[in-house]
Amino acid sequence: MVKVLVLHGPNLNLLGRREPAVYGSTTLAEIDRSLVALGAELNIDVECAQSNHEGVLVDRIHEAMDRFAGLIINPGAFTHYSIALRDAVAAVGIPTIEVHLSNVHAREEFRRHSVVAPVAVGQIAGLGALGYALALRALAERLNG
Catalytic: 81? Predict the structure, then answer.
């Protein structure tokens, strides 16, 4: 079975309570459960993890190289400046889709630039929790042909 890793970056553990007008009321646990269920429908084994620590995310990306066929990542604030995450995604060479709950392009100027996007196969932003499901469906198409 094809395996996909879903990584959530800093502060995403607060989803459902953190600025619901911006990020919605869906919790991270609800997003993860829905992705695992959708993965089962798509014949994809989904593993989800969250960390507020850049190095932990980098380590998980490195581990993904030999264990996962695809990666979905919401780097959170690391999106805008983490060359370490960008380089890790580039180094492992597995198809990666960057996801953002809010429309980062309609927010503050500093949120409009992603250092990760240039090494990802795509980016989904502004569609709330649905963005994760769309990313998983896109990876399924790509990985299963």
Answer: no
